[in-house]
Write a structure and sequence with these properties.
elongated; ten-stranded mixed sheet; nine-stranded mixed sheet; single chain
């Protein structure tokens, strides 16, 4: 993204050239002819041609009324629409570099993303965010970055690779590439007036930039307090009722595609309103590499919403005009004279395949392929982020005295709750309770001790092996799930040796390995290769645990340590509860 946007369009020479072309006194640089324009404001589709001068739309006029242009694009009956805007996402979730991500979504019609790089921030601190800013420069995909607000997401309950207080947030907000404060996840801190979170939100308000939210489960007085503090958006919707309540409350909704099981009821709720509220935008949030490669990014969200019954005109309005209004970017989101020339030619409004994609007046993709060079950034600052020695089987056992103990367990993969049970002690170690799985989290950033903290999970099924990952929201410590200590140690050591990533172990063998040596989060490998390796991880996981959608799913493994959410969660400090502030270093409650 050009940091001087949107003021670059106000260059007097550019404007004068565009006005002359609009009058007919000068030719267009580019003329899009023979297309059907979707007016995302009215929802009306009409035949029209579009003339461009540099990055500016100079004219939208009657078809075949002009032919004077340096280049003519034959739209061939395609739908002319604004470039798509993803209002909340994390590139790191796709496990590829920003350049590789841009190459994946530009040909699909996405021309702007709002990127919260808090994964890089949690691992590398300010240096990680600076790297993200540098990586966004010179890329034809517009990347509006946000200042990570919750590094870590739950201070005192976990330790990340950095700690961003209000002074750090204020510094980032002074950078021109930073468009606001990223999702404020420490909900209780904001609601209860915690000085740290209050200062962070106030820094966002003082900057005049966006203050984005994460309001999962909030309603009534808590939701009102969260919004009154200054937070203005949410993507953590849990039901249609939740959607309607938050719309009524006045939040901007970033309707996300990463929870597909909820989309049908969201569509039904919006159709029930009878119109699309201006505060509904669309986002991807997290897209795994195999999903990105095979299905796409925001275009996939739009395609699914339309297949579930949402009018395509509404889906496109939400992802263009509404999104631009949210971002305070009147130059974006509309194909109209005087706006920025971010334009997509869709073959239809069902599959949303693209014929041509234009960003800032330049063709960047055609027939599903990128047509411009995309700069790649030096990845050296992101390497060597896993600061741990090899682990042993005993590192994945809970020591205890006595012969029988009462232990705390973390019940359910989502909407977790506390539970207790009894089990035996053998050879000085707690035997996992029947029907439970183990979770271990180890600090990997070198900031505090690297002792394993272990918990027992119920409602996660019987595990026949182990899974290790350094992608573990949001502190991204080394996290291991498993049914036995041998496989857990094996998977952990494979990931440590790889410099980060994911590994699946079963019966003393590594079944699948995905190295992610940059920050323990991403790789420089091509998307196709990364997608295949991640798919192998998914398939290997099906052999060691039986998934039960919608909550006991593979994706649940990556959010099991998200301590800012309500209920108990395992972290590198122990079993943590954001409501009580309690942290249990060991799950052993009593020796019986």
């Amino acid at each position: 993204m050009n940091a001087v946007e949107p003021m670059d369009l106000n260059d007097p020479v550019l404007r004068a050239r565009a006005v002359a072309a609009a009058r007919g006194d000068a030719p267009f640089d580019v003329l899009i002819a023979g297309g059907r324009l979707l007016d995302v404001v009215t929802g009306i589709i009409r035949e029209a041609d579009v003339g461009l001068v540099g990055p500016l739309i100079a004219s939208v006029h009657a078809p075949a009324s002009r032919a004077d242009a340096g280049e003519i694009i034959d739209a061939g009956g395609s739908i002319i629409a604004p470039g798509l805007i993803d209002t909340h996402m994390h590139i790191e979730s796709s496990m590829v570099t920003p350049a590789e991500y841009a190459a994946a979504v530009l040909p699909r019609g996405v021309t702007t993303i709002v990127w919260d790089p808090h994964e890089f921030g949690n691992v590398h601190g300010l240096d990680g965010v600076r790297w993200a800013v540098d990586a966004s420069r010179g890329v034809p995909l517009r990347m509006i970055l946000l200042a990570p607000s919750c590094v870590p997401s739950a201070p005192g309950l976990e330790v990340a690779g950095a700690d961003f207080d209000a002074s750090v947030i204020a510094e980032m907000l002074r950078w021109p590439e930073i468009g606001g404060v990223a999702e404020v996840m420490n909900m209780r801190g904001v609601i209860d007036g915690d000085p740290r979170m209050t200062a962070i939100v106030n820094a966002g308000l003082a900057s005049g930039k966006l203050v984005c939210g994460h309001a999962r489960g909030l309603e009534g007085a808590d939701l009102g307090a969260f919004m009154t503090a200054g937070v203005t958006s949410d993507h953590e919707l849990t039901s249609a009722d939740d959607l309607l309540q938050k719309l009524a409350a006045g939040l901007t909704i970033e309707l996300r595609g990463s929870h597909d099981h909820l989309l049908r009821e969201f569509v039904a709720a919006l159709n029930g309103i009878g119109h699309l509220p201006s505060t509904v935008t669309l986002c991807t949030d997290d897209v795994f590499p195999d999903e990105l490669h095979h299905a796409g990014g925001l275009d996939d969200v739009i395609r699914r919403l339309v297949s579930y019954g949402l009018k395509p005109e509404w889906a496109l309005r939400a992802s263009t005009f509404n999104a631009a209004q949210r971002l305070k970017r009147p130059d974006l989101g509309l194909v109209a004279a005087g706006r920025r020339a971010d334009i997509v030619l869709f073959n239809d409004l069902v599959e949303f395949e693209t014929r041509c994609v234009i960003a800032n007046g330049r063709i960047v993709a055609a027939e599903g392929k990128v047509t411009v060079a995309i700069a790649r950034s030096d990845s050296t600052p992101l390497q060597h982020s896993v600061k741990l020695p090899a682990l042993t089987e005993n590192d994945f056992r809970v020591p205890s005295q006595g012969t029988r103990v009462r232990v705390a367990t973390i019940d359910r993969p989502r909407f977790t709750q506390w539970a207790e049970t009894e089990t035996v002690v053998e050879d000085g170690f707690v035997v996992p309770p029947p029907g439970s799985a183990m979770i271990s989290v180890t600090h990997r950033h070198g900031k505090v001790d690297g002792r394993r903290r272990i918990g027992f999970l119920t409602g996660w099924g019987e595990w026949r092996g182990a899974f290790c990952t350094t992608v573990s929201h949001d502190s991204h410590n080394l996290t291991v799930f498993g049914g036995n200590a041998r496989d857990m140690a094996l998977a952990a050591n494979a990931v440590i040796s790889a410099g980060g990533g994911m590994a699946v172990a079963r019966d003393g063998q590594i079944e699948a390995l995905l190295p992610l040596p940059l920050s323990g989060l991403v790789t420089e490998a091509p998307l196709q290769e990364t997608a295949a390796a991640f798919r192998a991880i998914r398939k290997a996981m099906e052999k060691i645990v039986d998934w039960k959608p919608p909550y006991l799913v593979f994706k649940a493994c990556f959010g099991a340590t998200l301590a800012c959410n309500l209920g108990p969660h395992q972290t590198d400090r122990g079993i943590a509860d954001v409501v009580t502030g309690k942290v249990l270093e060991s799950p052993v409650l009593a020796i019986l």
